[in-house]
Amino acid sequence: MKSVVLIVGAGPGLSSAIARRFAGDGASVALAARTVEKLDSIAQATGARAFVCDATSVDAVGGLFDEVTRTLGEPNVVIYNAGVRIRGPVVDLDPKGVERTISMRDHGRRCGPRLARRGESVRADAVGTGQRA
């Protein structure tokens, strides 16, 4: 059985390397981000399918899972890498931006059981201010 890998919050960094590795191992890879344009080069290089998904919406992530299941099969590996980058000193961060970041991470936690009901789920978290010491 061919593996189906779903990467939510895909982009040119870590997600690209993950997609290349799984595709190289013969998996069907689904990449999801708010805009497909970010995913075009990764999809072309790996043979992955690109999907639009706003990971700030639990319903959108659930719909993504259904769409990927219809087109590639049920994912047996899910990588939830969605996040929002906020830059600046912690004391200057906009509370709404921080709330959005925490909310998005929480969506991944709440969607995880459904997304990974038959396979493995990995959530990539990184929290920082973008400031160097």
**CATH 2nd-level architecture:** 3-Layer(aba) Sandwich
Strand order, main sheet: write it out: 3-2-1-4-5
Structure annotation, total helices: 4
Number of DSSP-assigned strands: 5
Q: Bin the helical content.
A: 40-55%
Strand content: 15-25%
Q: Runs with pLDDT <50, length 5+? A: 126-133
Rg from Cα: 15 Å
**What's the order of the H and E elements?**
EHEHEHEHE
* Corresponding CATH superfamily: NAD(P)-binding Rossmann-like Domain
Report the mean per-residue pLDDT as an integer: 78
* Derived structural class: alpha/beta
**Overall geometry:** globular
The CATH topology is what? Rossmann fold
User: Biggest sheet, in brief?
Assistant: 5 strands, parallel
- Total domain units: 1
Q: At the first level of CATH, what is the class?
A: Alpha Beta
State the end-to-end distance.
48 Å
Task: Describe the protein in words.
There is one protein chain. This protein has helices spanning 14-24, 40-46, 58-72, 95-115, and strands at residues 4-8, 28-33, 49-52, 77-80, 120-123. It has a five-stranded parallel β-sheet, sandwiched between helices. The relative contact order is 0.19. The longest helix is centred in the last third of the chain and has 21 residues, at 95-115. It has 133 residues and is α/β, with parallel strands linked by helices. It has a single domain (4-123), classed as NAD(P)-binding Rossmann-like Domain (Rossmann fold, 3-Layer(aba) Sandwich), CATH 3.40.50. The protein is globular and about 50 Å long. The chain has four helices and five strands, in the order βαβαβαβαβ.
